[in-house]
TrEMBL record, chain B:
It comes from Eleginops maclovinus. This is Guanine nucleotide-binding protein G(I)/G(S)/G(T) subunit beta-3-like. PANTHER family: GUANINE NUCLEOTIDE-BINDING PROTEIN BETA G PROTEIN BETA. Belongs to the WD repeat G protein beta family. Keywords: Coiled coil, Repeat, Transducer, WD repeat. Residues 1-31 form a coiled coil.
Length: 236, 340
């Protein structure tokens, strides 16, 4: 939902999804392609179409030019494979460029909590454990998060004592321990009494599995197929 | 030049008159009517399955009517039919062109279709006699890219195109039965009404149009968006239309009131909407944005109640099954996920 990052500002504003996403992917493929059949004049056209001028009202309603339609042809599969890999690698890199953390941070006050939520890097996931000493499950959850903090260095894990936060009215013992998940100041996940989802004895892997179910953790695997491109597809 | 100016003025006048006429029928707003309804509360969906097999960005997906099978189209030049429960690949269909923009599953489950920069809609028979999936028809007549297609039956399909028209095809003869012309910009998406009598189209002229299929006529036009409409769908009861636009908002238009009921927008959302799906009850709207994020809206209260796949923005397309039990998302990293 954030509109731009330092990386994105350098790029031409394009669509990534839907039919316009396909058109822009095709344009980029023709521009970047190893295939030498695209002459310089056509490349210039592709660049122009990628960033329509605001004042060209007639052009705005039409997304592809006649000359571009003429450029569509059967493409070299080898070039296509290279391009697809490149696309995904770039996306992965774009998302992996962010600060790294090693431990769970103790937030001493409500202000510290707000500071973390609002000021972390827009790509950094912030997971806050709201606890109270003596409440069942809090200590166990703390140990689990200590482990996960080592494994997921891109995530900033924090914990805050509900009383220290001045939030003990909202975070009463019945709803503790609670996990709050934020990114770019946005609340992504909100789990009160989170231990009700686990057994009496639970471990880091249980917490990890739980967060994964909601799509909240980064993928540990690189896309499974990036290196397996030469295997034949089974057509049943 | 004088005449053009006059005509332009007349057109603006007519538009104002239409807007005024619509307003006189408006006796309440959606917000007022829904004020007694309690908010839905935070919606947090869980991944139930991951479908692995594609090699590149998923461009489109569509559920079959049995709510179990679904078809996906990817930049890797393949259509894959999945069993979303077992996660098995039922069919893997190689396409002639990698630049596929849309795919569709026939209500019968016998056929799938796709199309894209090849300007054609290709129909595949899944239930061929020898068990192989082959191209059954190539519907070629559009002079622009194929942005969307939806089956009416095994014999009829509707397509929308970058040539600004939509077409109803006779699949058996491979010919155009009706051409729906009227949009002033590329048609980006279409949706068929629950009773199969009407369809709606969203285009780059910032409008949505309701078409009577048999009469080949545009019945209603809805404006208000400030940029291209990329995604469109019927509200589950068929009485309203939901649109998603590059202006970063979604709108709900009521067919009988012939006007916009509400705009789903938030000042923190600046990225265009490129896909959308409503829950079966119509209470929730899932809006997929071009930055690969999905926002979940309470449609009655016009409040954001959640996001999908919170960590990495990866979602490139979405679809809700007809039984309303699951949502499927395709992503740029080649996977599809089933959520509920």
């Amino acid at each position: 939902m954030m509109s731009g990052s330092t990386q994105e500002e350098e790029e031409l504003p394009v669509n990534h999804t839907g039919p316009k996403g396909v058109i822009n992917d095709w344009r980029r493929f023709k521009l970047d392609s190893l295939d030498q059949t695209v002459p310089q004049s056509k490349k210039e056209l592709l660049r122009q179409m990628s960033s329509p001028r605001e004042d060209d009202k007639e052009r705005l309603n039409r997304k592809m030019s006649v000359q571009e339609y003429e450029m569509i042809q059967e493409e070299d599969e080898r070039c296509l494979k290279h391009y697809r890999k490149q696309c995904m690698q770039e996306m992965h890199e774009r998302l992996s460029f962010c600060p790294a953390f090693e431990e769970v941070y103790e937030l001493e006050s409500g202000d510290a909590f707000l500071e973390v939520i609002e000021n972390e890097h827009r790509l950094t996931l912030v997971i806050v454990h709201v606890y109270q000493p003596g409440v069942k499950g809090c200590e166990q959850l703390n140990s689990c998060l200590d482990c996960l903090a080592l494994e997921y260095s891109s995530i900033k894990f924090c914990r805050i004592d509900a009383v220290a936060a001045g939030a003990s009215e909202r975070f009463t013992p019945e709803v503790l321990p609670a996990l709050l998940v934020y990114k770019a100041s946005e609340l992504l996940g909100h789990f009160l009494a989170v231990t009700k989802h686990f057994n009496e004895d639970f471990f880091a892997t249980d917490v990890e599995g739980f967060l994964n179910e909601y799509g909240l953790l980064p993928k540990k695997e690189f896309t499974a197929c990036a290196d397996d491109e030469d295997e034949g597809e089974d057509v049943e | 030049m004088g005449e053009m100016e006059e005509l332009r003025k007349e057109m603006e006048n007519l538009k104002d008159q239409i807007t005024a006429a619509r307003k006189t029928f408006q006796d309440t707003t959606l917000q007022e009517a829904a004020s007694g309804v309690t908010v839905v509360g935070r919606v947090q969906l869980k991944t139930r399955k991951t479908l692995r097999g594609h090699l590149a960005k998923i461009y489109a997906m569509h559920w079959g009517t049995d709510s179990t099978l679904c078809v996906s189209a990817s930049q890797d030049g393949k259509l894959i039919v999945w069993d979303s429960i077992t996660t098995n690949k039922v069919n893997a269909i190689p396409l002639k062109s990698s630049w596929v923009m849309t795919c569709a599953y026939a209500p019968s489950g016998n056929l799938v279709a796709c199309g894209g920069l090849d300007n054609m809609c290709s129909i595949y028979n899944l239930k061929g006699k020898d068990g192989n999936v082959k191209v059954m028809r190539e519907l070629a007549a559009h002079t622009g890219y194929l942005s969307c297609c939806r089956f009416l039956s095994d014999t009829e399909i509707i397509t929308s195109s970058g040539d600004c028209t939509c077409v109803l095809w006779d699949i058996e003869t491979g010919t155009e039965k009706m051409v729906f012309a009227g949009h002033q910009g590329d048609c980006m998406s279409l949706g068929v009404s629950p009773d199969f009598k009407f369809f709606i189209s969203g285009a780059c002229d910032f409008t949505a149009k309701l078409w009577d299929i048999r009469e080949a006529q545009c019945r209603q036009t809805f404006s208000g968006h400030e940029s291209d409409i990329n995604a469109i769908g019927f509200f589950p009861n068929g009485n309203a239309v939901i649109t998603g636009s590059d202006d970063a908002t979604c709108k709900l238009y009521d067919l009988r009131a012939d006007q916009e009921l509400i705009t789903y927008q938030d000042s923190s959302i600046m990225c265009g909407v490129t896909s959308l799906a409503a829950s079966k009850s119509g209470r929730l709207l899932l809006a997929g944005h071009d930055d690969f994020n999905v926002n979940i809206w309470d449609m009655l209260k016009s409040e954001r109640v959640g996001v999908l796949a919170g960590h990495d923005n990866r979602v490139s397309c979405i679809g809700v099954s007809s039984d309303g039990m699951a949502c499927c998302t395709g992503s740029w990293d080649s996977f599809l996920k089933i959520w509920n």
